[in-house]
Amino acid sequence: TFQVVGPAAPVVVSPGEDAVLPCYLSPRENAEDLQIRWFRDDYAAPVCLYQNRRYIFEDQIPSYRGRVELFPGKLFKGNVSLRLRDVRRSDHGLYNCLVRFPRYYEVAVIDLGVRALGSQPSVSLHSPGGDQAQLLCRSEGWFPQPAVIWTDRDGNEVTSQPPTVDTDSQGLLSVSSSLSKHTGVRTGSVVCAVNTQEVFQETISLLPLAGW
C-alpha cells in the first residue's frame, strides 16, 4: 500500500504570493492515472480535481478557478503537490490532499498559513481637551490580528484601552490602541509593541514631561 505524505509544518506565505502545498506518494509511484482531489471542508466542492489525466472543473470552488494547478511533469514521480497562485487572506487554513487508488484512498492534511506583516507602528499624542491627553498607537496591514502591548521604560506592561480593529478591502487588519495619562506613566519613554506569534514590530515614543 501507499501513503500520501504532506509537510509536518505549515506552509506560510504572504497575500499576493504564490504557494506550493507539498504532497507526495510514499513510496514514489506514478500518479498520472490516479484521482487527485484537493479540497477544504467539503469533499464534493474541490479546490482542484484531477481525474482520467485531466482537470475536472464542474464542482470546483469558484474562488479557486484559474489559480490552482498540479505539476503535470512530476506526477509520474508521485508528486501531487498543488500550486496556488495569488494567495488571498481567505485561503488561510487546512487543505486535504486525497489520492484515490483502485481499492482504497489516502489523505494528507496541509496547513496553509497566510501571514501579513503590518506597518511599523506609529505613536502620536492626542489631546481632545481638558485632562484627556492620550497616546495613540496604530499599525496597518496585518493578518492574523496582532496584539498591541504598551510597556514603560523599565519593561513593565502598562494598562491600555482594548484595541480597535478595522478591516480593509483586502481583508487585512489595522489596529489602534490608546494609552491614557492616568496610567501613571509620567516621564522617560513608553514602548508600543505590535506582534503576532510569527512577527514582532515595535516603536518607541519618548515622552517629555511637558508633553504628558
TrEMBL record:
Protein's name in the database: Ig-like domain-containing protein
One example GO MF annotation: signaling receptor binding
Tree of life domain: Eukaryota
SUPFAM superfamilies to which the protein is assigned, alphabetical: Immunoglobulin (SSF48726)
Location(s), subcellular: Membrane
Main location: membrane
Entry keyword annotation includes Transcription: no
UniProt keyword list: Immunoglobulin domain, Membrane, Transmembrane, Transmembrane helix
Domain Ig-like positions: 1-108, 130-205
GO biological process: one example: regulation of cytokine production
Top-level taxonomy: Eukaryota, Metazoa, Chordata, Craniata, Vertebrata
Xref: PROSITE patterns: IG_LIKE
GO cellular component term of the entry, any: external side of plasma membrane
Organism (species): Lepisosteus oculatus (Spotted gar)
